[in-house]
Amino acid sequence: MDDNFVINIKIAERSYPIPIERQEEEYIREAVKWVNKMLINYQSVYKDEFEVRDYLALIAVKAASYAIQYEREHDMTPFDDKVRELTARLDAYLAGEEG
User: Fold this and answer.
1) From 10's CA, which of 2, 18, 60, 81 has a CA 20 to 30 Å away?
2) Which domain holds residue 57?
3) Residue 51: how many CB atoms within 10 A of its CB?
């Protein structure tokens, strides 16, 4: 079974065909809802001061800031480094015991 297919999404009254993997569909549809909700919010705050592409740029910055915040809060590098260090120490210890 092919897990890739095309869905049509609608953002700011425009439709876009987008190829996705099946496991992404729920996330993509939720993202489209979020973008459209943010668009309405920005349009109500700024009272049509900008064009749609300007609102979408603001939304892109907001989404990117969420992604950066998530990456920083879920950075596993310190844990990975500690696991590597402990594994090396354990390997060295076991090598010393066997030899």
Assistant:
1) 2
2) 4-74
3) 9
Residues 32-47 as b or e (16 or more Cβ within 10 Å = b): beebbebbeebeeeee
Phi first, then psi: what are they for 20, rounded to 5°?
-140, 165
Which CB contacts under 8 angstroms, 24+ apart, belong to 33-42? 35/11, 35/59, 35/63, 36/10, 36/11, 36/12, 38/62, 39/11, 39/12
Q: What is the pLDDT of residues 25-67, one digit of tens each?
A: 999 999 999 999 999 999 999 987 999 999 999 999 999 999 9
Distances in Å between the alpha carbon of 46 and those of 12, 22, 54, 92, 99? Answer: 16, 37, 11, 63, 73
